[in-house]
């Protein structure tokens, strides 16, 4: 470990030193130059990662100012972190973030403390994995009480694992870090969960550092809108301008500069089990690969309104922050709505990879994994 004074802000070593001052029992998983940093205090959240040791780029967005202040906000604490566990839906008659009979407005929006400020229990860990668990009792907007157990198993992946998962050969000259989170939800209450009283989903959100040269890349199923529905929902926070969002036949490009708030969503009818981003300045290709059940279309709807179709939500989302906090952007995946009987469980796997190398190598990986070339995004 280098002396803190010599560590550059933005490096993994800097963030490791910083976080170790503010959180207890940080878990570091390492394999050579590849490392990830996990906080049990923040729900087993992967805070950041590196492909190049302590001096390497820190990939997760971290809200240093908020963490250093020590303040706790009653509504939400955007501490950041490269991969966090949440539950959906956010809004609607089955919302977990609004109390019964409140308005769907920001003043009434509260992130459950179990997903924001309360710790998960570290059950066990090894040099390449850590297993967390937490029991919760949550109440949705209609007043339904859910008793649940969350289990979260995080594994550091090596080059061979990554190649097998993504179906590509990863050259030795490409630096990489990858990790998987297997997230399990168990109904530990006496009542079965059903659509009449609302269902939940596992929602995984990854926060990364935005820049003027970063672009989110989301491939989706090509096909007629009469058959598959619209390609993208792009008006969560107002319509996204065309210069920030390009939608093609089977892929979209979304500017990830952290300067204008916008969110996009892909329906389960259109979704593929992958999305990514490319930082042309630092030559970093980021990939999110997750479990997606073919033919399953019931996903919770998080729109902030009483909904006509509460199970017509998205399987994939991406978000660009408006600059108030960041700059950061998010890549997100969700499980289907979970209609679990008492003592039943269901899981959702989300895997994150960062690749650093020359443009030709990264372009080959992007074509193999996302089905698109990133050369046009590089300006070269």
Give your account of this protein's structure.
This protein has helices at 12-22, 64-69, 159-166, 225-228, 359-369, 375-378; strands at residues 27-31, 34-39, 45-50, 84-88, 121-125, 129-139, 145-157, 175-187, 201-209, 214-219, 245-247, 251-255, 262-266, 274-279, 284-290, 316-320, 328-334, 345-356. With 380 residues, the chain is mostly beta strands. A ten-stranded antiparallel sheet has the order 5-6-7-8-18-15-14-10-12-11. A hairpin with a 5-residue loop joins strand 6 (129-139) and strand 7.
The best one-word shape is globular
**Ends distance:** 37 Å
Tell me the series of helices and strands, N- to C-terminal.
HEEEHEEEEHEEEHEEEEEEEEHH
Poorly predicted ranges: none
**In what range is the share of β-strand residues?**
25-35%
Average pLDDT rating: 95
Topology:
Elements: H1 12-22, E1 27-31, E2 34-39, E3 45-50, H2 64-69, E4 84-88, E5 121-125, E6 129-139, E7 145-157, H3 159-166, E8 175-187, E9 201-209, E10 214-219, H4 225-228, E11 245-247, E12 251-255, E13 262-266, E14 274-279, E15 284-290, E16 316-320, E17 328-334, E18 345-356, H5 359-369, H6 375-378
Entry summary:
The chain has 380 residues and is mainly β.
Task: Name the descriptors.
about 375 residues; mainly beta; ten-stranded antiparallel beta sheet; five-stranded antiparallel beta sheet; globular
């Amino acid at each position: 470990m280098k002396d803190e004074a010599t560590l550059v802000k933005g490096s993994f070593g800097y963030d490791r030193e910083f976080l170790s001052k503010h959180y207890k029992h940080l878990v570091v998983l390492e394999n050579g130059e590849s490392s990830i940093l996990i906080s049990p205090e923040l729900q087993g959240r992967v805070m950041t990662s590196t492909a190049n040791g302590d001096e390497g780029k820190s990939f997760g967005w971290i809200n240093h100012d908020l963490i250093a202040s020590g303040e706790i906000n009653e509504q939400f604490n955007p501490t950041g972190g490269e991969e966090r566990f949440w539950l959906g839906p956010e809004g609607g008659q089955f919302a977990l973030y609004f109390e019964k009979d409140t308005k769907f407005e920001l003043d009434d929006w509260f992130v459950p403390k179990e997903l924001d400020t309360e710790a998960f229990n570290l059950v066990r860990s090894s040099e390449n994995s850590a297993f967390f668990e937490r029991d919760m009792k949550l109440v949705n907007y209609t007043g339904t009480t859910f008793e649940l157990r969350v289990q979260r198993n995080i594994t550091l992946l090596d080059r061979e694992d990554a190649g097998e998962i993504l179906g590509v050969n990863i050259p030795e000259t490409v630096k990489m870090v990858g990790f998987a989170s297997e997230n399990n939800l168990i109904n530990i209450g006496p009542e079965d969960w059903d659509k009449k009283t609302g269902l939940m989903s596992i929602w995984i959100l990854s926060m990364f550092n935005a820049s003027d040269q970063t672009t989110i890349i989301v491939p989706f199923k090509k096909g007629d809108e009469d058959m598959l529905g619209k390609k993208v929902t792009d008006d969560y926070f107002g319509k996204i301008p065309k210069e920030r969002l390009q939608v093609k036949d089977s892929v979209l490009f979304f500017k990830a500069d952290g300067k204008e708030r916008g969110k996009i969503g892909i329906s389960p009818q259109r979704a593929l089990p992958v999305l990514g981003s490319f930082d042309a300045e630092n030559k970093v290709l980021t990939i999110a690969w997750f479990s997606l059940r073919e033919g399953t279309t019931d996903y919770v709807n998080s729109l902030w309104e009483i909904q006509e179709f509460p199970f017509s939500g998205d399987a994939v989302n991406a978000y660009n922050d408006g600059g108030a906090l960041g700059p950061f952007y998010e890549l997100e995946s969700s499980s289907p709505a979970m209609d679990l009987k008492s003592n039943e469980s269901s899981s959702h796997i989300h895997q994150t990879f960062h690749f650093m190398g020359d443009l030709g190598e990264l372009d080959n990986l992007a074509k193999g994994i996302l089905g698109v070339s990133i050369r046009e995004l590089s300006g070269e």
